[in-house]
Design brief:
This protein is mainly α and 169 residues long. The protein contains three helices and two strands, in the order αβααβ. A two-stranded parallel sheet has the order 1-2. The longest helix is centred in the middle third of the chain and has 54 residues, at 52-105.
Length: 169
């Protein structure tokens, strides 16, 4: 369940990548309007038997940290987007001005091709910042919402009897 290379106590340990992937994929399929409950079965004779409260806290802390990471990533995206948008507007303005200037100075089909080329370059430069503000933040918001739901999920740790070995087989 936890990353075996992580030396921290249960409450601060990292979930293993497989456990996180399983929980996240499972939770993505659940209805969005219902609370999430995570049920963990551990063997009654297992080493984690007395660590159930720590296990519950560790899962909540892990997904709370993941939600905070997504919030930080969204802030970074919007900060980068503002800078990219400013640069894009400057380049778009310069391209439109150069295109206009060329159309005033040069006549003929070649001037029209140059003018349109600068217009296209200007709009291409502004496309990525627009894409950041229009689309890139949505998957981050979805993940953050899911991680918050998982952080507040009810986690139940159940002790199950250890499997018995068949005798004489």
């Amino acid at each position: 369940m936890f990353n075996t290379l992580d030396p921290f106590p249960f409450r601060q340990r990292d979930l293993s990548a497989d456990a996180e992937q399983y929980i996240v994929e499972w939770a993505e399929e659940l209805p969005k309007d219902r609370a999430i409950e995570i049920l963990i079965d551990i063997a009654a004779d297992g080493e984690a038997g007395g660590a159930a409260p720590d296990l519950v806290a560790a899962i909540g802390n892990w997904f709370d940290g993941r939600a905070r990471s997504e919030t930080k990533a969204m802030r970074q995206l919007f900060r980068d987007g503002r800078l990219a948008f400013l640069i894009g507007l400057i380049v778009l303005s310069a391209c439109l001005f150069i295109g206009w200037w060329l159309s005033e100075r040069i006549e003929g089909p070649f001037a029209r091709v140059l003018q349109e080329s600068f217009v296209i370059v200007g709009w291409v430069v502004i496309w990525r910042p627009a894409e950041m503000f229009l689309y890139d933040w949505l998957p981050m918001l979805r993940r953050r919402t899911l991680y918050r739901r998982l952080a507040s999920a009810r986690v139940t740790v159940r002790k199950t009897p250890a499997p018995t070995k068949a005798v004489g087989t």
